[in-house]
Amino acid sequence: MNLESLYQEIILDHYKHPRGQGLLAEPLGSAHHVNPTCGDELTVEVGLATGGGLVVGYEGQGCSISQASASVMTELVNGHTVEEAEAVRLAFIAMMHAKGAGEPDEDVLGDAVAFAGVAKFPARIKCALLGWMALQDAEIQSGLMTPQSNEKTQ
Amino acid sequence: MSLDVARIKKDFPLLSRTVRDGKELVYLDSGATSQKPYQVLDAERAFYETSYAAVHRGAHALAEEATIHYEDARSAIAGFIGASPSNIVFTKNATEALNLCAYAFSNATALSRQGAEGRSIDPRFILGPGDTIVISEMEHHANLVPWQELCAKSGATLRWFSVDDEGRLDLSNMDALIDATTKVVSVVHQSNILGTVNPVRAIMDRAHEVGAIGIVDGCQSVPHMPVDIAKVGADLLMWSGHKMLGPTGIGCLYGTSEILDAMPPFLTGGSMIEMVSIETSTFAPAPQKFEAGTPMVAQAVGLAAAVRYLEEIGMDEVAEHEAALTAHSLSALTAIPGVRIIGPSTTFERGSTISFVVDGLHPHDVGQVLDNLGIAVRVGHHCAWPTCRRFGIPATTRISPYIYNDESDIDRAAAGIIAAQKFFGVAP
């Protein structure tokens, strides 16, 4: 276990050069999430493009892991259908809870596979999940998604 | 005389372990909780092995012995702050002690609304709209949230001392802030995030001028400096055992006899009663009135051992050692470009707990790099979120040394901060 396994190049790159930052002009839904143990805050907004694909923006402050994760998230879900985005989101959550076991599916997760190492640092899992949890809430707020009672959200 | 840190360190078994692939541990998170010496671990174990039984009930030999151990522990712990044993209540932790105080007000208020036949309710504890509670902007959530809740329940209004850029309380408006409407003034002795040592005596004196009850949160002062309750002048003062080398699961509440007698109980049930019928009950005198159920007997024995350990070193020596570490930490940290101290920049009226931010780096990331080097620090808002908001920051990194740390530990932390700046490419 070393620092490089946690802070992959891709993560540091997204942290220093965040993508998808900023709130939307006309959001359909918005969610503000905090990490109460460290005070990190993130607002995620969702809308639909004219073509029907998702548009996701965010604003907030937090550590490299939470900020890079939100940045990667926008790249993976923007322009996709709600269902496609949800598949990625669930795969990301599963990877975070895998404790480093199993190979994450790069076809589904793309750059987000860089976060596999975060799962070995229990204190940082919440950081990585912050944006993705806010995304789900924003989608529910917008009516694009209905709440699923059986879903594991931790 | 400076402390023999190398010798002290040998008393703490945990400090000899390694972390993160064999790295020597540097423990700088004593503000959150301290490590335990053999003397404390052995005392608790010996008590369980030889004298353990239920206290304050039963007539057998063990019950007698256990009760003696428990009450001897209370005496030792009371003596540590210059109090009498009957003025010390054991609680689960300092948070519970603060809630015990806040609930005295909400219980008295609720009882007075019901008429509470046959009960004398001290009017000082009855709150309503128009009354005020005064705290400060540097309180730990434990000395904030219970008062917010009390305000919500009673209609009283919360007021607070603000904090200046140097991390000191602004006392310029003290007479306006604490006025005839004020029923409670509750402030921290030493801030757990800023390290500031507050002039609590002056604040308590002002509270008493207006007839308010004065409370001091001593969680970060009692373990680190000599605290004489007579000099503090508080009606109520609480601290936790685990931050001063003692076990988890025990906190202490000091109260003047007069105030403890006037306060309605918090938790009720066994051990805290005087007489019980099916319709109603009367209560034992303090401290038993506030110790419902089986108390934390072994923890009290452990904490008494911690008190003896600290007294053997001498609290003046502890404070002197920490003052030297504070001076060293302040100069080591401010020597690093891009590091900003959040809190007093000098050793004047300041403890060894030091919070800082690093330009371009989030505290979580600083802490992660330090952890990778074997250095344990705290990152986050330190349960003092309003203080972070005051300084416009989401969080800080905090070092909080104790008797088992020396200057080399601070130097390793400083080197770790520079390593973090290099790793993230933000070295100025």
Automatic annotation (TrEMBL), chain A:
<dbReference type="GO" id="GO:0051536">
    <property type="term" value="F:iron-sulfur cluster binding"/>
</dbReference>
<dbReference type="GO" id="GO:0005506">
    <property type="term" value="F:iron ion binding"/>
</dbReference>
<feature type="domain" description="NIF system FeS cluster assembly NifU N-terminal">
    <location>
        <begin position="7"/>
        <end position="127"/>
    </location>
</feature>
<dbReference type="InterPro" id="IPR002871">
    <property type="entry name" value="NIF_FeS_clus_asmbl_NifU_N"/>
</dbReference>
<dbReference type="GO" id="GO:0016226">
    <property type="term" value="P:iron-sulfur cluster assembly"/>
</dbReference>
<dbReference type="Pfam" id="PF01592">
    <property type="entry name" value="NifU_N"/>
</dbReference>
<protein>
    <submittedName>
        <fullName>Unannotated protein</fullName>
    </submittedName>
</protein>
TrEMBL record, chain B:
<dbReference type="GO" id="GO:0030170">
    <property type="term" value="F:pyridoxal phosphate binding"/>
</dbReference>
<dbReference type="InterPro" id="IPR015424">
    <property type="entry name" value="PyrdxlP-dep_Trfase"/>
</dbReference>
<keyword id="KW-0663">Pyridoxal phosphate</keyword>
<protein>
    <recommendedName>
        <fullName>cysteine desulfurase</fullName>
        <ecNumber>2.8.1.7</ecNumber>
    </recommendedName>
</protein>
<dbReference type="InterPro" id="IPR000192">
    <property type="entry name" value="Aminotrans_V_dom"/>
</dbReference>
<feature type="domain" description="Aminotransferase class V">
    <location>
        <begin position="26"/>
        <end position="412"/>
    </location>
</feature>
<dbReference type="GO" id="GO:0031071">
    <property type="term" value="F:cysteine desulfurase activity"/>
</dbReference>
<dbReference type="GO" id="GO:0006534">
    <property type="term" value="P:cysteine metabolic process"/>
</dbReference>
<dbReference type="InterPro" id="IPR015422">
    <property type="entry name" value="PyrdxlP-dep_Trfase_small"/>
</dbReference>
<dbReference type="InterPro" id="IPR015421">
    <property type="entry name" value="PyrdxlP-dep_Trfase_major"/>
</dbReference>
<dbReference type="Pfam" id="PF00266">
    <property type="entry name" value="Aminotran_5"/>
</dbReference>
<keyword id="KW-0808">Transferase</keyword>
<dbReference type="InterPro" id="IPR010970">
    <property type="entry name" value="Cys_dSase_SufS"/>
</dbReference>
